[in-house]
Amino acid sequence: MNTRFYLENCYKISQLITENYSTSFSLATWMLEKEKRRAIYAIYGFVRLADEIVDSFHEYDKETLIRQLEEDLDYALNNRISINPVLAAFADTVNRYNIDMEYIQAFLKSMKNDLSQKVYSTSEEMNGYVYGSADVVGLMCLRVFCNGNNDLFLQLKHPAQKLGTAFQKVNFLRDLRNDLHELGRTYFPELSNNRFDESTKTLLVNSIQKDFEEAHQGIKYLPGRSKLAVSLAFEYYQNLLLKIKNTPAELILQQRIRIPNLRKYLIIAKVNLKFALGLI
After folding, report:
1. Helix, strand, coil percentages, rounded to 5, for the chain
2. Contacts of 234 (CB under 8 A, 6+ apart)
3. In angstroms, rounded to a whole number, what is the distance separating the alpha carbons of residues 27 and 41?
4. What are phi and psi of 78, to 5 degrees?
């Protein structure tokens, strides 16, 4: 046995986390080439680990756990090894694809904000949070997709950020009940008065659709099967936004909006066919 064998198993653990926590994300990731697929699993495993600390570990000292996560990650990045399998795979991916430390720091800053800030009352505050919690995750993935092509990365940087923004805002809407009533969080400034009605929903949906339109401009330039994987995630979240649009506001406050499995498989078939025909 050697560290390479250990690292391979670390990546498999991140894959397991991805598959268990997000069916839609893991299905999109499966469309990638093997090496890129492993890297995206590693990124998801890391961001899920941090997110679980702030969202789920209510009976534990979250501040201490986040601080420990930062310290362990710092060691993993500097030494390229960790006894935490998720961090070991993530650190290997960061070093392999030259992922910017600024993105990692911005992500952790937003996660720590969830421990101290409950209400985002201005667009500036929300945009800052979304940049750290979602945009930079998209940029980490883009580093993997571009695989060293910095010119392509810079070309697609803005669309990738907009896609991260759109995905996160859709998640805010689908998780509205849990955020408001269980975690006491209000990310949208439009909801700072705790009022969510049809007019507010329409305003937010239209804003998110504009983010999607800007993001879509970059998908056609993605290399290889990255175009297929991102198109699949894009189509899935577009369907999710459409379902939110067609669901009464009061029901969104009572349940988490989901796409049925049959619909997911139809989306997969549709996107794969369009990719095979060169339509995306």
Report:
1. 80, 0, 20
2. 163, 212, 215, 216, 219
3. 11
4. -80, -30
Length of the chain in terms of residues written: 280
Kindly tell me the burial class for residue 64, based on how many C-beta atoms sit within 10 Å of its own C-beta (0-12, 13-18, 19 or more).
Answer: exposed
Return the pLDDT at 237. Answer: 96
Q: Tell me, what's the pLDDT at 135? A: 97
- CA torsion sign for 235, 236, 237, 241 is positive
Contact between residue 99 and residue 143 where contact means Cβ atoms under 8 Å apart = yes
Structure tokens at 157: 């940087």
- CB-based burial of residue 42 (10 Å sphere; 0-12 exposed, 13-18 middle, 19+ buried)? buried
Q: In the 8-state DSSP scheme, what is residue 119?
A: B
Check: CB of residue 109 under 8 Å from CB of residue 167: no
| Alpha-carbon gap, residue 146 to 225, rounded angstroms | 11
The model carries a pTM of 0.94
Token couple for 162: 């907009």
Which whole number is the average pLDDT over 244-261? 90
Taking phi first (over 0 means left), then psi (-120 to 50 degrees means alpha), and beta for anything else, what does residue 84 get? beta
Contact 30, 271 (CB under 8 A): no
pLDDT of residue 185: 87
> Could you tell me which residue, 124 or 192, shows the higher pLDDT?
124
* Position 194 pLDDT exceeds 80: no
